[in-house]
């Protein structure tokens, strides 16, 4: 069994807003991959993800983007589907709520909410000044540290999930090698964590257009072995799978591609 303990030395500029970033202990699952980060290292990764998803702004912690069937919540823009909506993307907000309830008080209406209480974007923005939205935004603002821990924990469990979907031993070896190759590179932990949060592990059969996925699994499969600059190759492969997603999409997603490309370019820089 491999165990990789990665200690990153990252400079942490101030966050966009004042927030308590004292991180709760990470509950590391017993698998092949463990991450050890200081509070400042984890906070820096969280800051970059929040910048990628919501420009680091509090008002973007609770939004409903045009053209989407769900609100996006928190620094990672976690998905929460309304009742009756079954989209192709993995719903992540209920899992975040379960994580938060282990360490903080959650508003009562959220503990029993189940589905998002707004049926569409217009209804959501008609209620943007309601007490529910106010409490939700307040919760997302005061749990930045717990959201960072949740995102990091997701990466720790990603590799076993990805390998379990592959029957071909050559493919399994390639994906595992590329994963550790990136993880041991400068900026690699941020790039892995961000992409898993951004586009998922790539193991859900729902997250496919024309049979092809766009998650971390597909990114690692698209990486070429032997290239000199690991992070440049990681960014190139990310661009490839995202461009393929847009080409395969049943509806026009081209408006997102420029922003996605700008995001993956950060994987090659510190």
Main features:
270 residues, 12 helices, single chain, globular, mainly alpha
How is this structure best described in words?
Strand 1 (62-63) and strand 2 (72-73) form a beta hairpin. This protein has 2 domains: 39-148, no CATH class; 157-268, no CATH class. The chain has 12 helices and 3 strands; from the N terminus they run αβββααααααααααα. It is globular. Helix 1 (39-54) crosses helix 6 and helix 6 (144-156) packs across helix 9 (188-199). The chain has helices at residues 39-54, 93-100, 108-111, 121-126, 131-142, 144-156, 158-164, 169-183, 188-199, 216-222, 230-248, 254-265; strands at residues 62-63, 72-73, 78-79. 49% of the residues lie in helices and 2% in strands. It has a 3-stranded antiparallel sheet. With 270 residues, it is mostly helical.
